[in-house]
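Batch manifest, entry 17 of 40.
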Amino acid sequence: MLPAQPVSPTATTAKAVPCGDKLPVIAAKVRQVMKHSSSRELFAYWNECRGARYAPERGDIDPGAIRGALGDSFILALDGDEARFRLAGTRVCALFCRELRGLSFLGLWSQESRAIVETLLRAGVDETVGSVAGAVGHVTDGEVDLELLLLPLLHRGRQDGRLIGILAPLRVPYWLGTQPLRELRLGTHRHVGPLITSSLNSLPSALPTERRSRRGLVVYQGGRS
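Output type: structure tokens
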């Protein structure tokens, strides 16, 4: 599971990207795209860390800088057609009532959802494209709505098959940690990057303004602010 680590007072300040008086507007735009606070926190931090790059280096990610989202976060490693958990937060593991490290990510999904999920994973690795999606998890007594966020990571300036993400329930069910999710079913999904800029001021370009399709992925291209 992802450990909570102490952060020095200057750890995140050194990587902060100035955005001036546009921060409230940017935050409102992100809320339109991502429903869960953990998704918004990780995306904002990922965006700060990457600067003018397509994605941040995996070594840039400080777990302590995303303390609020840490329990809902995970890191995947892709090797060929297989995606496995490298790390998984405590709340992600609680959804399935087991430790997920080393397990197949695609194995959590229903058969009809796997091809689309694999497309999202490949888009992250091959095209350095992030994705946000709705999902439904099923248990014996019912189901729960979740949000999935997938964001690419670089290694020494190159994409090496690593993704960081969020899987979190939009409302915490009473059975969390007592009944494991049996399978996940993917809902609507959209493209959320990359954004090539040294400032958060262009963040609204992640918002849906023009819809097109690419390799089974619904892509929303926006203009610069």
